[in-house]
Amino acid sequence: MTLAEMQFQTPELRLASAEIFMLVMACLILMLDLFVKDRKRTVTFVATQLTLVGAAVVTFATTSGDIGYTFSNMYVGDLLGDVLKLLLYLTVIVVLFYSRGYILERPQMARGEYYALTLFATLGMMVMISANHFLTVYLGLELLSLSLYAMVAMNRDSVPATEAAMKYFVLGALASGLLLYGMSMIYGATGTLEITAVAERLYMGQVDRGILVFGLVFLVSGIAFKLGVVPFHMWIPDVYHGAPTAVTLFIATAPKLAAFAIVVRMLVNGLIVMAPDWQMMLILLSVLSMAIGNIAAIAQTNLKRMLAYSAISHMGFMLLGMVTGVANGDARFALNAYSSSMFYVVTYVLTSAGTFGMILLLARGGLESDELEDLKGLNKRSPWFAAMMMMMMFSMAGIPFFVGFFAKFSVLQAVVAAGYLWLALVAVFFSLIGCFYYLRVVKIMYFDQPTNSLPIIAPLDMKILMSANGLAVALLGIFPQALMSICAFALLRSL
Amino acid sequence: MTDCRRPTASGKDRYNRASGALLDDPDNAFLDEACVNSSLLLAAIPATAFATFSLPLLVQRCGRAAATLAAATVMATCLALLLPLAPAAFAGHSEVARLAWLPGYGLDLSLRLDGLGLLFCLLILGIGLLVVLYAFYYLPTSDRLGRFYSILLLFMAAMLGIVLSENLLLLLIFWELTSVSSFLLVAYRSDKYESRIGARMALAVTGGGGLALFAGIVLLGHIAGSFELTVILAAGEQIRAHALYAPALILILIGAFTKSAQFPFHFWLPSAMAAPTPVSAYLHSATMVKAGVFLLARLYPALGSSDLWFWMVGGSGAMTLVYAAATALFRNDIKGLLAYSTISHLGLITLLFGLDTPLSVVAGIFHIINHAIFKASLFMAAGVIDHECGTRDMRRVNGMFRVMPITATLAIIAAGSMAGVPLLNGFLSKEMFFAETISYPQFEPLGWALPLFATIAGMLAVAYSSRFIHDVFFNGEPIDLPRQPHEPPRWMRAPIELLVLLCLLVGIFPGWTVGPLLAAAAGATLQAPLPDFHLALWHGFNKPLLMSTLALAGGVLIYALRRPLFAWQAHLPPLHPRTAFERFYRALAAGARRTLAVLDNGSLQRYSALLVSFIVLLGGWAFVSGPSADVRLPGQPADEAAVGALLVLLLGALGATALYRERLLAVILVSVVGLVVTLIFIRLSAPDLALTQLAVEMGTIILLLLVLYYLPPRSAPRSSARRLSRDLLLALLAGGGLGLVTLQMLASPFETMSGFYLQQSLPGGGGANVVNVILVDFRGFDTLGEITVLAMVGLAAHALLDRLVLLAPQHDADGRPWAAEAHPLFLSMLMRPLLPLSLTVSVYLFLRGHNVPGGGFVAGLITSVALVMQYLANGIAFAQPRMPRHAVRLLALGLFLAAGIGLTSWLFGRPFLTSAHGHVQLPLIGDLELASAMVFDLGVYVVVVTVVLTVLAGLGSLSLRARSQIEEV
């Protein structure tokens, strides 16, 4: 290498313009907030929402549909990234609307940092989504994780929240270490960390396979931790339960999209040649997650904790799509399989947002309303919201005419097409167990006597949003084709 | 997007042979024209049902009658839409309408109406109308009925969906919808415990069966290549020959058996009888439980005709038939008796399908019709009795014939049909069943067994029917009834009257009444020419008649012997699959809790242990499965000094771990580790690293000692030996594994970039010390980032420590007071002259840094250590006023220097942080090479000094402040 080769080149900034915009705006909002005197931080809130909308506009305007690399190939702009980012903005916007009332009732949380951290976390996820380099993935991941640790501990006086943050931090640091270690192994085996270059070298066979398998183990472990699948799931119940519900809502939704993205980037884009190895690991993780997630959820009395285990099982189910892309060296089904996973994640995020949104809606006067008991007789207090919640539960359980059914269906169909019949049966069996606790929620809402008969008061925007969310779950259940096509098309143009 | 299907070739044949001509010749031109219209009509049936199911809820404010009328109107509309399509279905056509939905997954909104679908539609809508009328009288007047009818209509819509689906996935969706809506119907009286339990169990069993069915259908679609019935029904041979036939069949049968309450999934049905009686009459006799047998009929051409089919379907059906009939006899609750009799009759139908001959299938279809008619009327009659008496216990409800003679007569006729008494419809299908058992070909050596079995089942049916008739309507006086019974309202009885009339009509004139419908349905089921059969009351004296006679006589005899039988039954151990279900349910919950106790105990240590164990497992797997790892040790021989140093390092690390409870000792041992590392760096010719490490080590130890001060004097309780050994094992495995992997990595050949830096350092960066040139020049941007982070840490420490007040303890762990003399005179006097010396060293290191070991970072560390020593020796009171005060400003200055010099390169048209260098002759010092990077290094220096001072002095001053406060108190 000569000095001339080290010359600094101006990167193509257009591809990363949304990230740049987000970074600048997040810093500006952090500073702007110093001058906001209003206790409700309305200015900060509005600016944050506008930033997200602005980022959506930027992303939309710069979408070309082609694959482009920038920052010395560390960064990729493609349709998959753009679609996921647009969904991400939408999710974060919805999350912020849902959380607004909740955090206003908690002085510790109603601060500008909450919004700035949300934006930084979003930026981290955007970087993860568009990474074409293992270190870029790591960078985004850490930006996300660090923001999340702080957000979990945002309500400093709450003992469960700080404990949860502590656990999350310690385990998260361990997992980040694993991921980084795995990356270093991959570097050792292939001599590069650029995802597309890794794929190329693997394809050419110029690698040390022994080290690569080790690297893969650590890489998959790190990813598994971020996805929250068994046995790397321990943080999920504690964090979901302990964190303020607004933060739980955030953790339970948007990062799943980014986690899916890094699975695609690292395992599919980079290590597809190693698919037989990582598919085997993912099968193990997936089956364990579905088993433990669903069984443990039954024993829960706290709604957030139950949903945490449900999240574990859902992520396990989502992984099923990822393990069936390559069967016996044949990648014919890959697109179908991965797009089914993507559809699963997107619909899960949609449903999860509504479910946690409902917990936020029920929380009042600074008190949580996250025990299953709190849902007793919801139908008598508000038939409309009970119906919305019922739709969410039905969708999560995978009952037909709700979008969750098609998500499960498309993944299962990919599993069967790849010839993993036993896996499909296992998945169906555990989904059946899963139905049990979702339907218990429905039963509690409809058949139990309410313990408090206060009517539910919610701001209009929340009511509208919650209804829209519920209806989306129902409507997408009747017309899932459009979203499915978007997922498939985005992947088709990006793989 | 509609698609019309021509009549199948055999359609006309079938119809002609079966029932005589209705349509002379299918006029193709007429069909083409009518095709679009009929597709629309077909789609309109479920569409109407789904669109209007909430109508009763909307109009219930206008009164109960309005809700009832709305429900009836919806059903009648559907029926009206169906009628124009009926002639084609009678003629053996399969009308198919299709709308693309999810073409990628083979899921279309496609509907199909053929004879079988028509039969079920008629049952669903016809009996539905009667139930609507009946429920109006049955349910209490306080109930506004809107909710009831809406759920009922939703259920009806889902049922219509099942029987009209052309696509199996669509069928499955409707199937699950019936489970859910029936859950709501069974739990309609949600205040009753039995309702909730019954509803939950029904949902769990049928919902679970639905999922099995889902898996089965996915498999079937995979085998046949399509989910469309037209394709699947035509691919019977291919499906049966496929390797996945058995799992697909078993899964689908689980779905069908759970829905139709076949053994061993029958237990939910009696529990679901907690539902209001109209619901039982509708769901549990005529429609929902028939969905399972409908599925058997529907898929018969694809799945039937195999040994597995015979044994599974026939076996389960036979088992259910006899077991449920015997159980029915012992039930004291009228609805319980009817529930088990329903299960038994469903078993009979299932057995008929299992016998797997065309005629047995016809008989099965026929019995579906007959059973729906007589059982619905019986349930309604039972409801009337319940409604009038307030109880359904047959030990108390006696002698009703005198109280309500008309209802009693109707119920007796219906029960006669259930028992298979001649002149009634039940007799006809039962005769066909008997005939089939006799002529069944495949069972040669045991040819007598099946007829015997059938006769016993017949006897039991007669016995429980007799018990129903005799106990309820005769058998002395009623005992202790909650209400005074009398005849029900005129219109409440009307549905029963109509159904019983049908029983008689079908029983006496079968060919005229159900002949065409049966032929069309059976033809559609078989998808092949119909066998010869004659619907007639009288077939002459033959074996089936003999069996019927035997069954009648035997049944009456069994009933006559009921007292000893009941006494015997009371001694049997209670065996209820229902309790087994409950036990399973509890075991599942207990298992979940136990799993949780292990995995989710809230302990971070447990979590990390699990995480690390799994990593070790995965790593071990990778080690075993990967290509043989051949670890080549590096070629250099180990020298004594290095080995000795490593041993000290190891001992230090081990000591620190073992003595972690003795914190002071542990800190000292940690510093040993740090020093050995420094020595190793020197040994490996890395003086820069060694210098930095040494300076960092000192700062760290001071920091640790300061922090120790704030820790509680007593550490956490000692872990158990088991836990310690677990952790030790995990640590050994994980650490050993990582070490091995690292060794393997290091042993493999690699290229480094060092050559580039070594070559370019002097010409490109103007410095001979490559490390420093990398830091301030080549990777100056990184360093700028790093010092920015460092500055932020300093800021954060400043913000955290500035106002924090912690009270320091007065005594140490052993109760000894802290030394009164904080700053020994000797120490402070010794330290003061050291300061200028240290500062000189740091300036020296700073200036020479570009060419020989040194640089801004090390210089900064040495300066800060020197300053901190003044704090330590002389105390805050002495040192604080002599130190620069504005930490924040200093940090800004450092960053400004570093970034500013970078920016100036822009003035010269060079990229950010380009370095310039040249030589200056200074008096005394001589030739000095100066690089612009030095200013950058100065920035690094300032930031490092400020941060270290802020942190250490902040922590130190706090302790003093706290102590002085205590002293003041």
TrEMBL record, chain A:
It is found in: Cell membrane; Endomembrane system; Membrane. Its EC number is 7.1.1.-. It is a multi-pass membrane protein. The keyword Ribosomal protein does not apply. Residues 131-433 form the NADH:quinone oxidoreductase/Mrp antiporter transmembrane domain. It catalyses: a quinone + NADH + 5 H(+)(in) = a quinol + NAD(+) + 4 H(+)(out). Its main location: membrane. GO terms for cellular component: endomembrane system; plasma membrane. Keywords: Cell membrane, Membrane, NAD, Oxidoreductase, Quinone, Translocase, Transmembrane, Transmembrane helix, Transport, Ubiquinone. Belongs to the complex I subunit 2 family. NDH-1 shuttles electrons from NADH, via FMN and iron-sulfur (Fe-S) centers, to quinones in the respiratory chain. The immediate electron acceptor for the enzyme in this species is believed to be ubiquinone. Couples the redox reaction to proton translocation (for every two electrons transferred, four hydrogen ions are translocated across the cytoplasmic membrane), and thus conserves the redox energy in a proton gradient. NCBIfam families: NDH_I_N, PRK05777.1-5. PANTHER family: NADH DEHYDROGENASE. This is NADH-quinone oxidoreductase subunit N. It comes from Candidatus Accumulibacter aalborgensis.
Automatic annotation (TrEMBL), chain B:
GO terms for biological process: monoatomic ion transport. One of its GO terms (molecular function) is antiporter activity. It comes from the Bacteria. The chain crosses the membrane at residues 40-59, 66-86, 116-139, 146-164, 170-189, 201-224, 244-269, 309-330, 337-355, 361-385, 406-428, 448-465, 498-524, 544-561, 609-629, 641-659, 664-684, 690-712, 728-747, 787-805, 825-845, 857-878, 890-908, 938-960. The keyword Lyase does not apply. Residues 165-439 form the NADH:quinone oxidoreductase/Mrp antiporter transmembrane domain. Residues 648-712 form the MrpA C-terminal/MbhD domain. It is a multi-pass membrane protein. It is found in: Cell membrane; Membrane. Residues 105-149 form the NADH-Ubiquinone oxidoreductase (complex I) chain 5 N-terminal domain. Residues 827-950 form the Na+/H+ antiporter MnhB subunit-related protein domain. Keywords: Antiport, Cell membrane, Ion transport, Membrane, Transmembrane, Transmembrane helix, Transport. PANTHER family: NA(+)/H(+) ANTIPORTER SUBUNIT, NA(+)_H(+) ANTIPORTER SUBUNIT A. NCBIfam families: PRK12648.1. This is Putative K(+)/H(+) antiporter subunit A/B. It comes from Candidatus Accumulibacter aalborgensis.
